[in-house]
Amino acid sequence: MNTSRVNFINDFQEICIESEIEVVMSKDILSMVGKSKPSKVTKSLTSQAQNSISSISSKSQTNKQSVHTSSIIGEYLIKIIPKNFSLTETPVSIVAFDLDGTLINTKSGSKFARSSTDWRWFNQSVISKLKSIKNNSPIVIFTNQGGVVAKQTSKSYQNFVGRIQSILESLKSEGIDISRIWVYASPKKAAGYKGDSVKSFEEMRKPQRGMFDNFIKDFGGEDKILIKDSIYVGDAAGRSNDFSDSDLKFAENINLNFKVPEDYFV
């Protein structure tokens, strides 16, 4: 089998894994790469492709059991939200967080995460504090992700989603009900973006309230939330060592009480 066919198999596997799709046409795919007389190499590669397809299908079945669904809205918003959410009959308070520098820091010490596993909790109080949140209160993450391009094939997008999945798995292992967790991320506008939603990129980025408005819509309306009893925690508070005041201004724009992580996670 020539190099181009080997590359085709590798590319096909990567695309399937990245897109988390279920493969149901294994015979058709294999026929595309196995036209020539089978050799030991061909048989070996064909077997590898079959095993990979089986693995991808298994991965797809696992994904179907996930309690969250991820979606990209017009390249300007990433949502990872509960699949089986039921509207509440009575209003509830929410506890909302920034992500980087608030819930987590990088393990590497780098300013930005280098991989999906490059993270650690902000401090030792994070888990116990999250466990203390009322059972009926949604936990919502609003995060600016200026290094992420919201495309399924983007490595930065895959790393970000992988990091969120890793965080959710860690929380679940600690006994926290992750079906209460909602994630909204504002990605960057790709250099070659040619869509008609340029303004939406600006509206989603904190301190603008676009991500919060999307959560309100997904949650069933602002009347479902006790705004005065809700809180937003973020590290960008305009202090002397802070990179900005975007979290403080975001809290003001959505009318939520505000705390910095050093005061909340104690």
How would you describe the overall organization of this protein?
The chain has 266 residues and is of the alpha/beta class. It folds into two domains: 3-64; 68-264, Rossmann fold (3-Layer(aba) Sandwich), CATH 3.40.50.1000. 39% of the residues lie in helices and 17% in strands. The protein has helices at residues 3-19, 26-33, 40-64, 126-131, 155-173, 198-204, 210-219, 246-253, 261-264, and strands at residues 68-73, 77-82, 95-97, 104-105, 120-121, 139-149, 181-188, 231-233, 257-259. Strands 1-2-7-6-3-8-9 form a seven-stranded mixed beta sheet, sandwiched between helices. Strands 4-5 form a two-stranded antiparallel ribbon. Strand 1 and strand 2 (77-82) form a beta hairpin. The N and C termini lie far apart (61 Å). Mean pLDDT is 83; it is low at 5-36 and 41-63.
> Between the first and last Cα atoms, what is the distance in angstroms?
61 Å
Indicate the low-confidence ranges by residue numbers.
5-36, 41-63
SSE pattern, N- to C-terminal: HHHEEEEEHEHEHHEHEH
CATH superfamily of the largest domain: HAD superfamily/HAD-like
Helix fraction by DSSP (H/I, runs of at least 4)? 25-40%
Number of strands: 9
**Which strand order spans the largest sheet, edge to edge or round the barrel?**
1-2-7-6-3-8-9
> What fraction of the residues are assigned to beta strands by DSSP?
15-25%
- The total of helices stands at 9
Q: CATH top level of the largest domain?
A: Alpha Beta
Could you say which structural class the secondary elements and strand pairing correspond to? alpha/beta
Radius of gyration: 22 Å
Q: Number of domains in the coordinates?
A: 2
CATH fold topology of the largest domain: Rossmann fold
